[in-house]
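Final report, Chapter 2: Outcomes

The project's central promise was a pipeline that accepts a single protein chain and returns its three-dimensional structure in a standardized token representation, suitable for archiving and comparison. That pipeline is now operational. To close this chapter, we reproduce one record exactly as it appears in the project archive, with the input sequence first and the structure output second.
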Amino acid sequence: MEKSLMLIINPSAGRGGYKEKLGEALRILDEGGYRTTLYFTKAVGDAVEYAKNYAAGYDTVACVGGDGTLSEVIAGLMTLENRPPLGYFPMGTANDVATTLDLPKNNMPGAAERLVNGTEHPFDVGKFGERYYAYIAAFGAFTEVSYATPQDQKKALGHLAYVLQAMSALPKVEAIHAKVEYDGGETEGDFLYGSLSNSTSVGGIVKLKENMVSLGDGKSELVLVRDPKTIDQFGELVTSVLSQQYESKYLTILHTTWARFTFDKKIAWTCDGEAGGEVETVEVQNCPCPINFIF
């Protein structure tokens, strides 16, 4: 049985690497029963509008790009009452969602095979204020890295560009005072970092254990990193993160359906690696399983 596929392509993602194998990927999709229509983005926000205005007319929607492109497509789908299932051809730099789903990265034919042979899985979506996001909303240390890294560096250096940008940001890291409310509790203190996520990979740098994350359980992972006051305390925190033991008193990881963050001043956030704006108070929610993801 033939199925119609809307394929949204960000031509700038992954250094334009989709071009080399696009024909082979389309052949695999065609042999797998998909009749594909291509939509190319030209500017930020195009993927949102394409999904919002046209996705309802297709059996399946997929996108070629990085986490930012995927985030836009999901935001567009969330405006629809009936949402087609979603596929993903990861061609970006960090590809946190692809890492979580174990999808082939920068491999158009491989991603096409997964779309043809994969199955649908329920996928939670986040909501930052009134804005939907795919997998993470975060503030604090290194959260600027994804959107502050110059595009030419991304194209030339790939993931290394993120690491270099993170290293350059180290001297600028300052603790942020916040009150954080969540399911059944609240905490207050000085934090280097905070996030609500639905991913085992954050920025391509921090990894959470797979058994800590369920993509369709209606809960997100709240991660809070308190400000260590000494070099020894900082070393304890780094060791805890790198060893994935998460036993440091400076690190909190728990599951919640929502969180409310209150700051002393407006604080910059990032959503799916893109600038999310500055807020003094914001509620971040988990929207349970509005998307069926094919992988």
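Archive annotation: Confidence is low (pLDDT under 50) at residues 145-149, 153-168.
This record, like all others produced under the grant, will remain available to the consortium after the project formally closes.
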